[in-house]
User: What shape does this take?
Amino acid sequence: MSVQRPRRVATDPMSRPRNANLARIKLVSGLAFAKQDVYEPAEDSFLLADVILAESADWGAGQVPRVFVEIGSGSGYVVASVASMLRNDKKRGCYCLAVDINRVACVATKETLSNHALDGNVDVVNCDALVPFLGRLEGAVDLVAFNPPYVLTPDEEVSRGGIAAAWAGGHKGRAVIDRVLEMVAGTIAPDGRMYMIAIHENEPEEIMEEMRRRGFDAAIVATQVADEEVLHVLRFIRQC
Assistant: This one.
């Protein structure tokens, strides 16, 4: 069974009310071949970046990230926005890493970073989530951004690769979410935080309860209706 790529409201970020750090990106970068293979930034991307930047204004000295990771960077919109904030606040010094299983998405991310003079600030790696970094990053990551493939699909869609990797989520839209959360739980530092997009059908309350069992404070910190979906931003903070 094949499931079509879900439609998204792809509002041009150039036309949106702006935080100065939000990436100015032409949907999906200037790559002619990227539009067929890379998830265009849409309302879920915008919401995730908006929430992280808004909450960063209230971070105390002990909450300033030293290591930031985006899992599934796609076009590079979120990582460029957060890296811009981290660069522009001269009090912050942070190692930034963007990973994506889609090789073309990594190329698009690098172009977006280059367009914002951020290519020297962020490492971009084509890999499966944090698999290559699990030992090195154990207990070391202070900030994670994750806009997962959350659309409910047959499980076989999850392994199709290409653009499907950006949206096909399998049963309850949780095939990738559950695997990544288990992986990330061991990498987040004490008081470190993760921001993740979920929709109602992913059963966010169940996701949060599982993260609480793993030692995290969990909360829904933003909700937005977009294109017949209810988007939530879940925030997980590692308890000391």
Q: What stands out?
A: The helical segments are 43-56, 77-88, 103-115, 175-185, 204-213. The chain has a mean pLDDT of 85.
